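Exercise (ungraded).
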Amino acid sequence: MKKTVWSMCGMCSVRCPIKVEVEDGEVTWIEGNPHILKGSLCAKGSAGVALHKDHERPQQPLIRSGGRGAGKWEPVSWYTALDYVAEKIEKIKDKYGAKALVMSCRGGPWQDLVKAFCHALGSPNFTNHDSACGRNVHHASKSVYGLGRKGFIYDIANAKHLICFGRNLLASLRVAEANQVMDMLDNGGSLTYVDVRQTLTGIKATRFFQVRPGTDYALALGIINEVIKQEAYDKEFVEKYTIGFDKMAEFVEPYTADWAAKECGIKVKKLKDFVTEIGGQRPKVIFHPGWMLSRYKDSFYASRCLHILNVLMGNIEVEGGQQFPKGPGDCGVKGLRTFSSNVPTPQDKRADGVGWKYKHFDKGPGLFHLFYEAMMTGEPYPIKGLICYRHDPFSCFPDVRTQKEALDNCELLVSIDTHYSEFGWYCDVILPESMYLERETPIATQKGLKPRFIYRDRAVEPKFNTKPSWEIFKMLADRLGFGEMFPFQTAEDIWKWQLEPTGYTIDDFQEKGFVSLTDEPIMYDRDNLEGKFKTESGKIEIINESWEKLGIPSFKPYESPKKPPKGRFRLVFGRSPVHAHSHTINNPFLHELMPENSLWINKRIATRLGISEGDWVDVIGDSQIGTVRAHVTEFIHPEAVYTVHGFGRQVPLQSRAYHAGMSDQKLQEGLLLMMDEAGGGLCLCEKFVTVRRSSRNPRRRVEL
Amino acid sequence: MNKYMLYLNAKRCIGCHGCEVHCKANKNLPVGPILCEISHEPLKSVKGVPKTEFMFRSCYHCEDPYCVPICPTGAMKKREDGIVYIEQDKCIGCMACAGACPWNIPQVNPSTGKAVKCDYCMDRVDQGLKPACVTKCTTRALKFVALQEI
């Protein structure tokens, strides 16, 4: 029997809407939702079929029977596993209070259920991976606009110029966004790309600045200086909507284009020409404020400057600029009912200090890495249990050894995931979630100029004894005595309950897989944006006085990044279009395309070290070592070496990924608590590693 | 006369290798055979920007293919519209076709032991659809073109 099912891709965190065709219980075809993506899908999206067939994923609940990480598991029933977890949770609650439990999830449109579950447990400690990802960008946005980093969408397709500071968007690959970039280029738009190495995005650029690692902030300051000098900014917009311009102008005075060019190692004429060009193209100029910017000690400030450059371009609420994402309210539709609204918020202070010790940070998910500090010190109170849903802290956060030491103070570690994550392998219990084609998810709101409600239906039945997350949380809630806060038994119940205030029913989703809340795109009146900026002053705060009072300056004096000592290099990392971090490394199809990572190293340096293309090289942190093949290229800065993140996995049951390539996060020793105090992000590019030609390169070969 | 061609707009191609997986997933292929391939030359600096262009290669569906006459069982065929394909029931997996092909295009499908190659997804084409690689191309860089005589 044939059927068509509307779903959303789960291969990476973009969650592209997809159409799935199923024949006799097997997936035969997946394509991008034709109404939204015109069929387009990336390699990962099509490899979902291989994930569904893959046996190398948890097939039933597992309870650890050996030491943590020893890989001895007892397969158990769902009842046994959930009873075990519930009992452990109750024990921790009795002994230390519910706040001793931390719940983490991967973030995204469905975190509401997980957050509600955490709050229903009685713990304020809901968190996600973002302090190793976009927190600096998010907090920079909050400090400028009072809005989070999703407070704007970028109309790239209609822009005249897109500037990416290391935002490698054609490799990170959001399908819709990649098409926007290509459309912009087809329409004659310019793309300026800034990075320490050349990338997939950079090869499409019309201008490329290869900068010294860690100098993004210098370049951004220099651009602001030159924009002011050339009067290449929207004076009217700045006058009307911002505060603090003069103070900024005074601050950037010494940071001239000449200074910045020298600091970054680029040509000053090229920089000045760039500013002249954007001066003529504004307001249709977009400075991408960055995505994964947990990189340097001043990444928060670099991102803050990029946000401000957007303001100087006056690109807000214009075609080809940044636009406010519109929600159901803008369409006269009531929003979806949320699970959190059904659950009281616990009043305890968060253990990560967010909200009381760190008052300027967003309380939503807080900062994950700071829970490790609480585990280690017992301050402000002990943390004794960690449940990670679809989140692998060992692949995401640096210095896995230190993480394990902290986790050894916990009495319960649970992983709820479709994969064997590295964290899962160290846990006490693995609760296997059905992969995305085998499960439904709650309805999500996708904001935009044409906002919509969208859902994921179950395409095929689970191959193994796995369950969708909503069922896992519901069954746990029932055991913990707060099942009534989650009033549903089936996915249909959830949808109906969510949709009740909106007036829609799930039948309205059958035609296209989503419900569009408006026919025409909605734009606000750009001359009347009062109330749209959620800062204390209601203006765009180039200088944020309330943060300054908390000791967070709006600009900080630039400090030149440390030069690595001889023989050492700054380890930088990034994405490939065929993998979604560690998530896909073991996928048969994607493994076939890219089975391991390599180390990019500058040609001149490599020659000096006697390293040729394809040689094995040892990459050494403090105590950890990774061995991969070298990619020798002139298109990386000599101070940096680069690798693709996500490899070097050590879960034996993932036979393809096992020990393939190297793991950057294991080499990032000592960085677990190195936080940018202003932005909350970690500083993952602040590690120097030693590189040498490996002794594994054969010179002689002895057989028998 | 060949009726169809696959054309890659290299300006739009971002080298994401989506087409390779779209093809494999549609043909239900195991790890091993890859029927179309994206490749590129090493980067070269052009006006200060390191550049390269992506190239796409699959079966050329030759006007006068060597693989067809060499096939001992008549499994390799050329249709009237030019599509060269393998009739799976007749194929014995001898791979004479791969030896005859100047580009070694036909590959072994280890799960069937038979030869497999790009057939422009002719089952889809016959339904009025486009090949998998074109339908799902991430940036809509691949085109399935119907050739016209001039």
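Further reading is listed at the end of the chapter. For now, observe: The mean pLDDT of chain A is 97. The domain at 2-53 of chain A is CATH 2.20.25.90 (N-terminal domain of TfIIb).
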